[in-house]
Protein: Putative iron-only hydrogenase system regulator
Organism: Anaerocolumna jejuensis DSM 15929
Amino acid sequence: METRIALVGIIVENLDKVEEVNHILHDFGKFIIGRMGLPIRDQEMNIISIVVEADNNTINSLSGKLGMLEGISAKTVYSKAGVSDCNALT
């Protein structure tokens, strides 16, 4: 199955949900290439960016599960080419 690279942007406005966010990310850990978190303490929120390599269904599942949590927003940006297509270009 073809995989894609995607960036999942997560805004955590309900800090009580941080443990649930981390649990979901742990469940999808084998697909995560990199993660960066930025605490915005004066506004009591966290911004997390996740780079993943997976098939579309897996990426959509990750983003959907995160977005269903109260006080959590998640949006995904996909690479235009699949990983197999990227390798063919080099």
